[in-house]
Amino acid sequence: MELENLGYNKKIEKLKIENNLKDFEIGRIISEHRERYVVKTEKGEYDAEITGNLRYTANSRMDFPAVGDWVALMVYDSYSSIIHKILPRYSMISRKAVGQSGAIQIIATNIDYAFIVQAIDRDFNINRIERYLAICNSSNIKPIIILNKIDLVDDSKLKSLITSIQNRIKRIPLVWLSNASQKGFEKLEEYLCKGKTYCLLGSSGVGKSSLINNLAGKNIMLTGEISKSITRGKHNTTHRELIITEKGILIDNPGMREVGITNSSSGLKDTFSEIVALSEQCKFSDCKHINEIGCEVLKALDTNKINKASYKNYIKMEKEKTHFELTVSEKRKKDKKFGKMIKNLKKQNKK
Ligand SMILES: Nc1nc2c(ncn2[C@@H]2O[C@H](COP(=O)(O)OP(=O)(O)OP(=O)(O)O)[C@@H](O)[C@H]2O)c(=O)[nH]1
Ligand SMILES: [Zn+2]
């Protein structure tokens, strides 16, 4: 396996040199299971753990490896290898961790493109597309919208769905296709490129797994590939999260379904650029664009210069973002308090 097929390029080569990692193997995390990682390098796949130093200096989940990361690996033998460093990430997709308010969980890193998948049936919802766009825009990932299951509608219905998307969402590639009839795949393949990394975003049932199977050759998602790593055959049962094909690297990750808004300020700005541009001209700088005097957004809404549905979606997501930022800052405060308490306890113990 050439490292280029895994996504290796000059940027990563440069990072390797800058970080003094000449003596290490460079590999990519292709799956993760409870702090054990499978790393793929030019020479093969290795089960790996992180160095104690990485663990003890970690401040949060962000400092642990994630699927998609490039890492510096010291290979001892086929049973043991150690991750010494995570190379800086150029993009990252994350979500709020379940249970712990404010904590962020990384889903995957170093992704170039996201396929935002929607099916033309019950799932069709432009608000949801905008939501995923905001996530892409805040994560440094280029979006491509896929409308799937077009075999289920006639041409005129399809046309009207396409128009309804294009009326609201401009300048983002849109591909319509069917996994069942295979229509539209030539168009999708124009966006695929060897060595680029793609993730799939979309609700359950929209056809993400079917799409991966179609792109990668049948059955990858059904059976999982049996690992070539000889280490105790441990990850035969869990399917691989990074799927390397001739046309690109695909990430399927169960967590993708649950991605929500996190720190999407830049995401909202790029997704609703028209609205945000107007909001900068509002009379009051803290205008919420709901009923304020001198609100340029409301003015544009009255004269149909902006889309009403997009406006509503924007206001809703702006609220969520504010709420999220609040929970994060509260969590930080709590963590600080807790840290102080521990410090004081230690002091007392010494005495
Ligand atoms: N008619 C039709 N059915 C499709 C198409 N693509 C997928 N399906 C069906 O839709 C259902 C869900 O497809 P999956 O590929 O499992 O969807 P998914 O997005 O991976 O779902 P999760 O794994 O739950 O996230 C399956 O029954 C597929 O056979 C399509 O293009 N046309
Ligand atoms: Zn306003």
Automatic annotation (TrEMBL):
<dbReference type="GO" id="GO:0005737">
    <property type="term" value="C:cytoplasm"/>
</dbReference>
<dbReference type="Pfam" id="PF03193">
    <property type="entry name" value="RsgA_GTPase"/>
</dbReference>
<dbReference type="GO" id="GO:0005525">
    <property type="term" value="F:GTP binding"/>
</dbReference>
<keyword id="KW-0690">Ribosome biogenesis</keyword>
<keyword id="KW-0479">Metal-binding</keyword>
<feature type="domain" description="EngC GTPase">
    <location>
        <begin position="109"/>
        <end position="257"/>
    </location>
</feature>
<dbReference type="GO" id="GO:0003924">
    <property type="term" value="F:GTPase activity"/>
</dbReference>
<keyword id="KW-0378">Hydrolase</keyword>
<dbReference type="InterPro" id="IPR030378">
    <property type="entry name" value="G_CP_dom"/>
</dbReference>
<dbReference type="InterPro" id="IPR004881">
    <property type="entry name" value="Ribosome_biogen_GTPase_RsgA"/>
</dbReference>
<keyword id="KW-0342">GTP-binding</keyword>
<keyword id="KW-0694">RNA-binding</keyword>
<feature type="domain" description="CP-type G">
    <location>
        <begin position="101"/>
        <end position="259"/>
    </location>
</feature>
<feature type="binding site">
    <location>
        <position position="295"/>
    </location>
    <ligand>
        <name>Zn(2+)</name>
    </ligand>
</feature>
<keyword id="KW-0862">Zinc</keyword>
<dbReference type="GO" id="GO:0046872">
    <property type="term" value="F:metal ion binding"/>
</dbReference>
<feature type="binding site">
    <location>
        <begin position="148"/>
        <end position="151"/>
    </location>
    <ligand>
        <name>GTP</name>
    </ligand>
</feature>
<comment type="similarity">
    <text>Belongs to the TRAFAC class YlqF/YawG GTPase family. RsgA subfamily.</text>
</comment>
<protein>
    <recommendedName>
        <fullName>Small ribosomal subunit biogenesis GTPase RsgA</fullName>
        <ecNumber>3.6.1.-</ecNumber>
    </recommendedName>
</protein>
<keyword id="KW-0963">Cytoplasm</keyword>
<dbReference type="GO" id="GO:0042274">
    <property type="term" value="P:ribosomal small subunit biogenesis"/>
</dbReference>
<feature type="binding site">
    <location>
        <position position="287"/>
    </location>
    <ligand>
        <name>Zn(2+)</name>
    </ligand>
</feature>
<dbReference type="InterPro" id="IPR027417">
    <property type="entry name" value="P-loop_NTPase"/>
</dbReference>
<feature type="binding site">
    <location>
        <position position="282"/>
    </location>
    <ligand>
        <name>Zn(2+)</name>
    </ligand>
</feature>
<keyword id="KW-0699">rRNA-binding</keyword>
<feature type="binding site">
    <location>
        <position position="289"/>
    </location>
    <ligand>
        <name>Zn(2+)</name>
    </ligand>
</feature>
<comment type="subunit">
    <text>Monomer. Associates with 30S ribosomal subunit, binds 16S rRNA.</text>
</comment>
<dbReference type="GO" id="GO:0019843">
    <property type="term" value="F:rRNA binding"/>
</dbReference>
<feature type="binding site">
    <location>
        <begin position="202"/>
        <end position="210"/>
    </location>
    <ligand>
        <name>GTP</name>
    </ligand>
</feature>
<keyword id="KW-0547">Nucleotide-binding</keyword>
<dbReference type="InterPro" id="IPR010914">
    <property type="entry name" value="RsgA_GTPase_dom"/>
</dbReference>
<comment type="function">
    <text>One of several proteins that assist in the late maturation steps of the functional core of the 30S ribosomal subunit. Helps release RbfA from mature subunits. May play a role in the assembly of ribosomal proteins into the subunit. Circularly permuted GTPase that catalyzes slow GTP hydrolysis, GTPase activity is stimulated by the 30S ribosomal subunit.</text>
</comment>
<dbReference type="InterPro" id="IPR012340">
    <property type="entry name" value="NA-bd_OB-fold"/>
</dbReference>
